[in-house]
Amino acid sequence: MENLYKQIWDKIQEADAVLIGASNGLSISEGYNIFADDDWFREHFGDFRNKYGIRSLLQGMFLDFEGPQEQWAYFSRLAYLKRYKEQSGRMMKNLYALVEKKDYFVVTSNGEDHFSLAGFSPERVFDMEGKITEYRCARHCHETVYCNPEDIIRMAEAEADGKVPVKALVRCPRCGGFMEPNMAGDQSFFQTDNWKKKAQEYQNFVQEFHGKKLVILELGVGWRNQMIKAPFMRLAQEEPFATYITVNRGEVYVPDVIADRSYGIDGDIAEVLNSLSGQQPR
Ligand SMILES: [Zn+2]
């Protein structure tokens, strides 16, 4: 195993660029599981759990709330706890240290914005299903996506009994209406200029390193994932000098056609990144 980590570490050092893809498995390795009725969910969202009968953070994200006061009570608390109050953990710091001096780009379906928390440049992260810190006009009067920590923190601090007071709610600067969290709920999400711009930047990055030594690092992405994994495997196949690295627990899939330049590691992502960072010469 040590030899394997050394090889992967060397591949990353030699690479012209690193493309990172991350999905739920990465969040779960960090202890954040949006599917689980776990201790963290019960401790911080027990009131919503009791009131609405939800059994996971994900169910709450797609709940039909009575109105923006209740919806923002939920989302501002989540964003405040997971993004603005929490410190970056060791796993994400290890990941950032691995690529910070390289050209990198991140595509992720994780909404908790922990890449920028760890130091990744937000310009180089494509949160393809939105993130809990962003919002836009609920009437869709214009397409701009907003992200202002002050709005989120104000709402989270003003919240009482599962409601944000109307006067504390964030408002659309154009029409004065309410805002809604910018999450991938319906097709309109994928039509925003913000999303299209990011998708284009992802393509630009891939183009820029066409024919170069590209490391494709996939973390916690399920084998059937169409948004991240399918394009990654295609890219690895098309790029003759690419190296494809996939890390996941209990679910590692590498197609035969790229097996000779792939590394598949079945294990805990936090431990794998820790072992990788241990390859740094001292
Ligand atoms: Zn508006």
Could you explain the architecture of this structure?
It is built from eleven helices and eight strands. The two termini are 20 Å apart. It has 282 residues and is of the alpha/beta class. Helix 1 crosses helix 11. The strands form two sheets. The chain has a six-stranded parallel β-sheet, with helices on both faces. The protein has a single domain (2-277), classed as 3-Layer(aba) Sandwich (Rossmann fold). The chain has helices at 2-14, 24-29, 39-52, 57-61, 68-85, 90-99, 114-118, 149-158, 193-208, 229-238, 269-277, and strands at residues 17-22, 103-108, 125-127, 130-137, 179-183, 214-219, 243-248, 262-266. The site of zinc ion has 7 residues, from loops.
Beta fraction? 15-25%
Poorly predicted segments: none
Cα distance, first to last residue?
A: 20 Å
CATH class: Alpha Beta
**Spatial extent as radius of gyration:** 20 Å
The CATH architecture name reads 3-Layer(aba) Sandwich
The CATH topology is given as Rossmann fold
Helix/sheet category: alpha/beta
Bound molecules: zinc ion
Secondary structure: number of strands: 8
How many domains would you count in the coordinates?
A: 1
C-alpha geometry: globular
The percent of residues in helical segments reads 40-55%
Query: CATH homologous superfamily, by name?
Result: TPP-binding domain
Total helices: the number is: 11
- The run of helices and strands is HEHHHHHEHEEHEHEHEEH
Give the spatial strand order of the biggest sheet: 3-2-1-6-7-8
The main sheet comes to:
6 strands, parallel
Features:
8 strands; alpha/beta; 282 residues; Rossmann fold; six-stranded parallel sheet; binds zinc ion; two-stranded antiparallel sheet
